[in-house]
Design goal:
Number of strands: 8
Strand content: 25-35%
Radius of gyration: 15 Å
Shape: globular
Oligomer: single chain
Order of helices and strands: EHEEEHEHEEE
Number of domains: 1
Structural class: alpha+beta
């Protein structure tokens, strides 16, 4: 694998350009709605209080997450809407995205636990970053999920 030169940008909702916001929503729709064949409302009114970490490569958004401060969604800080472009899978972009997201959470919110709601099939992926399962399996939009926490 050749190392991609990804340009990481972190922005609040209010500072996203229309092009950046469109790119985020398009990538999330491509994966969460179309690829996973799941009809759900992605715009859940949490983007407005989130910080958006975007990975750009050749002027294309290839990965993004939203980072949420403690006590906004969970007691802990949170990483959500973790998504990589299908065109860049198997390149390590997903691992880089999570490393960047964890690092940014600590920079922004200090040391502490990070909580995520993860699709069950990605359990081992998140465990590789130190997350542990903290809930039973639950259905969200007909997809099996679990809550996981990474203690600092």
């Amino acid at each position: 694998m050749s190392q991609l030169k990804i340009n990481w940008i972190l922005k609040s909702f209010e500072t996203l350009t229309p092009t950046e916001l469109y790119s985020i929503l398009r990538l999330r729709s491509e994966v969460f709605v179309v690829e996973q064949n799941c009809v759900f409302l992605d715009m859940d009114n949490k983007d407005q209080f989130s910080l958006h970490l975007m990975g750009w490569y050749n002027n294309e958004l290839i990965a993004c997450t939203r980072l949420i401060a403690p006590r906004k969604m969970y007691e802990q800080m949170s990483i959500g809407r973790v998504v990589t472009s299908p065109a860049y899978r198997k390149t390590g972009v997903g691992r880089i995205l999570m490393k960047e997201s964890i690092k940014k959470c600590y920079e922004l919110f200090g040391e502490g636990a990070i909580k995520i709601g993860a699709q069950l099939y990605l359990k081992k992926f998140y465990e590789s970053f130190g997350f542990i399962q903290t809930s039973n399996i639950y259905l969200e939009d007909d997809i099996e999920h679990i809550e996981m926490i990474k203690n600092s």
